[in-house]
Specification:
Order of helices and strands: EEEHEHEHHEHHHHHHEEHHEEHEHEHEE
Distance between the termini: 35 Å
Strand order of the largest sheet: 8-9-10-11-12-14-13
CATH superfamily of the largest domain: Protein tyrosine phosphatase superfamily
Largest sheet: 7 strands, mixed
CATH class of the largest domain: Alpha Beta
Number of strands: 14
Length: about 425
C-alpha cells in the first residue's frame, strides 16, 4: 500500500492504514484517511475522480466556518456526507510569528487550547469515526495541526505506540514545501515570517503527548473526563471497526535499477526513513539532506536500485564501487552498500534483508568477493542488524565526512561473498 495518496492539488492526503498495535493487529488500509483542505478539489478533474475512487462515505472538515467561506469546501456529492466540526475555538496566525518562537511550546499550547475548547466537536468527530462502516477522511487546512491532534487521539485509543503517533505527525514534513508554495501563491509571493510555518517536527508531538498525560493522565482519561464518553467502549468500537490481522502472505519483491526520473521518489523514500528514525530518537539521517542531484550523481558513479511490492515502492539502496571516505583507497574487490531503506510499516516483513541479499548478488555478478558497508558507531541496533545478516566488524573510521555536517565515527562491516 502507498500511505501517501498522490493528488495534484492536495499535498498531505494520507492513509492511516498499516500501523500496528503491540498485540499484533494493524489498522485496516483504506478505511481512515487524514488530509489537507479538500476545498481544493474540483469536479471533472483527475483529483476529483481519484478522491471518489477511494469510496469515502464521510468527510469531517475541522476548519473554522470563515476558513471554509474564504477557501472553499469539498464539493457536494451523493456518495458521502459532510460534517463541519470546528474544533479550534481560538484562532491564531502561525505565519506572522517571529523567528524566535519555538514551534514546540507554541504549537502545543495551541493544541491544549483546542483539547479544552473543542470538546463538543471532538466528541462528535470520534462518534462519527467509531460509527463509520465505510472509508472516512478528516481534514483541516494543511492537514497538520487540528488533523494531527485528532489523528493522535484516534491512534492512541487504538493502542498505537507513541513513537508511531509521533512519526505519523511528522510525515507532514514531506508536504511542507508544497504547503509553503500554496501559502506564497495566496499571498503575492511573500514568505511567512515564521520559519516554523508548515513544519511538523517530531518534538511537537512528543511535547503534546507529554502535556496530555501531565494534564489528564492519559488520552483515555481525557476522553472520559473532558469529553464525557465511555473511553473503554469507544476504544473497543474503534478497534472492532478499524483493526484487522496483518496479512499472512506478501507479494514477491521485484527490483529494477533506478533512472534519473526516479530521483524525486528516492528523495521521498529517504526523507520518510529519516522521519521514522527521528521519531525514535535516532539522529542518523535528517530530512532534506539528500536531494535529487545526489541520487542522480550516485546513478552516474555507481548504481541505485528500487524494490517494489506489487506496484508500490518498498525500498531502495545505493551500490558504490569505491568508498574512499570510509574505506580509503583499495583494489576493486568490493561493492559498497549505502542508504538501504525500506518503507516504514508498509513494506513486506524482511524487505531490508531481501534488498541486502539482492545487492550482494549484484556485487557477486561483477566478480567482486566482498560486500562492505558502514553504520554510525552510535547506532548499535543497526550494527547488530548487519551482523545478523553475516557482516563482520573489521574496523572503525573515526572521522568520516558526510551529510551530518561534521566528521563522525562509523563502524566498518564486511561480508565475504560466495
Amino acid at each position: 500500500m502507498n500511505r501517501h495518496i498522490p493528488f495534484s492539488r492536495l499535498h498531505n492526503f494520507r492513509d492511516l492504514g498499516g500501523y500496528r498495535i503491540p498485540h499484533g493487529l494493524r489498522i485496516r488500509p483504506g478505511r481512515l484517511y487524514r488530509a489537507d483542505s479538500l476545498g481544493k478539489l474540483s469536479p471533472g478533474t483527475p483529483d476529483w475522480d481519484r478522491f471518489l475512487s477511494l469510496g469515502i462515505r464521510t468527510v469531517i472538515d475541522l476548519r473554522h466556518p470563515w476558513e471554509i467561506e474564504a477557501q472553499g469546501r469539498i464539493p457536494s456529492h451523493p456518495s458521502f456526507t459532510y460534517h463541519n466540526l470546528s474544533i479550534e475555538h481560538r484562532s491564531y496566525n502561525q505565519a506572522v510569528q517571529t523567528p524566535d518562537v519555538d514551534p514546540g511550546p507554541y504549537l502545543v499550547e495551541r493544541y491544549m487550547e483546542v483539547a479544552e475548547d473543542g470538546t463538543k466537536e471532538i466528541r462528535r468527530a470520534l462518534e462519527l469515526i467509531a460509527e463509520a462502516d465505510a472509508p472516512l477522511v478528516f481534514h483541516c487546512a494543511s492537514g497538520k495541526d487540528r488533523t494531527g491532534q485528532l489523528a493522535a487521539l484516534v491512534l492512541a485509543l487504538l493502542g498505537v505506540p507513541e513513537t508511531v503517533i509521533t512519526e505519523d505527525f511528522s510525515l507532514t514534513e514531506l508536504a511542507t514545501p508544497a504547503l509553503l508554495a500554496d501559502w506564497k501563491a495566496r499571498n503575492d509571493g511573500r514568505s511567512p515570517a515564521w520559519p516554523g510555518f508548515g513544519r511538523a517536527p517530531a518534538s511537537v508531538m512528543r511535547l503534546f503527548l507529554a502535556s496530555m498525560k501531565s494534564r489528564h493522565g492519559s488520552f483515555e482519561a481525557y476522553v472520559t473526563q473532558a469529553l464525557g464518553m465511555d473511553a473503554q467502549a469507544l476504544s473497543d468500537t474503534l478497534r472492532k471497526t478499524l483493526l484487522e490481522p496483518p496479512p499472512t502472505t506478501h507479494p514477491t519483491l521485484t527490483y529494477r535499477k533506478a533512472t534519473p526520473a526516479d530521483a524525486k521518489l528516492l528523495v521521498r523514500l529517504r526523507d520518510t526513513a529519516a522521519l521514522w528514525q527521528l521519531a525514535r530518537g535516532i539522529r542518523q539521517w535528517q530530512p532534506g539532506e539528500k536531494d535529487e542531484t545526489h541520487f542522480r550523481t550516485r546513478m552516474e558513479e555507481g548504481e541505485v536500485w528500487l524494490a517494489y511490492a506489487d506496484q508500490s515502492p518498498a525500498g531502495a539502496w545505493e551500490l558504490w564501487w569505491t568508498d574512499p571516505a570510509a574505506w580509503g583507497p583499495g583494489p576493486p574487490d568490493a561493492g559498497y552498500i549505502h542508504r538501504l531503506m525500506a518503507t516504514p510499516h508498509t513494506a513486506p516483513p524482511g524487505t531490508g534483508r531481501r534488498m541486502l541479499a539482492e545487492a550482494e548478488s549484484r556485487i557477486t555478478a561483477t566478480g567482486r568477493p566482498y560486500a562492505r558497508l558502514d553504520c554510525l558507531a552510535s547506532n548499535p541496533r543497526l550494527r547488530a542488524y548487519y551482523e545478523s545478516a553475516g557482516y563482520t566488524v573489521v574496523g572503525e573510521q573515526r572521522a568520516k565526512e558526510g551529510g551530518l555536517g561534521s566528521p563522525y565515527a562509523v563502524v566498518l562491516l564486511e561480508k565475504r561473498l560466495r
